Amino acid sequence: MLFKSSVENSRNSFDLSKSLIFINMGQNDMDLNKKLGYDASLDMGQYLAEPLSKRLQVLYDLGGRKFLVSNVLPLGCRPFSISQEKPITRCVERLNKLASQFNSYLPQMLEDLQSTLPGSNFVLLDVYKVFEDVFSEPSSYGISDISHSCCAIDSAKQIPICKNGEVCSNRNQYALMESIPLK
């Protein structure tokens, strides 16, 4: 782990126990699984939660004590997912189910980690709920478009990424911008 070697090499320059460690994972794994053909027998929540738990323990062993762990947003409501799969409902429910599956593991996993790792504090950031609210009542958030991306999606690459990194000028009116590549 590159992060582990960086922390070990600079132990004298900073104290990881005073840092807030933000973890946001799962979305790319689910996107990749979707592209490779989703295996419905695979419990995506368990498949992703177990390695996450182990990695959080490694971060704890390196000195981390305060963790903010984000769950996965409703993947099926992203403009990229909608444009690729053209669902008959507002969102691609199959993808939202994948996200919910993973998200269902997080509260208990974080509670278990906090109870077994002395001095640790794990907080769950429920971005699924935040975006669910935005998608159901966009005007309350000053958003006028939840169906389209704020950029031209590079569909040739079959991944949610803005073509040439260009975004629209009125981006505050959109619920989501897809990933923007670094140049």
From TrEMBL:
Pfam families: Lipase_GDSL. One of its GO terms (biological process) is lipid catabolic process. InterPro entries: GDSL, GDSL_Est/Lipase, SGNH_hydro_sf. SUPFAM superfamilies: SGNH hydrolase. One of its GO terms (molecular function) is hydrolase activity, acting on ester bonds. Keywords: Hydrolase, Lipid degradation, Lipid metabolism. The keyword Endoplasmic reticulum does not apply. The keyword Repeat does not apply. Belongs to the 'GDSL' lipolytic enzyme family. PANTHER family: GDSL LIPASE/ACYLHYDROLASE FAMILY PROTEIN (AFU_ORTHOLOGUE AFUA_4G14700), OS04G0577300 PROTEIN. This is GDSL esterase/lipase. It comes from Salix udensis.
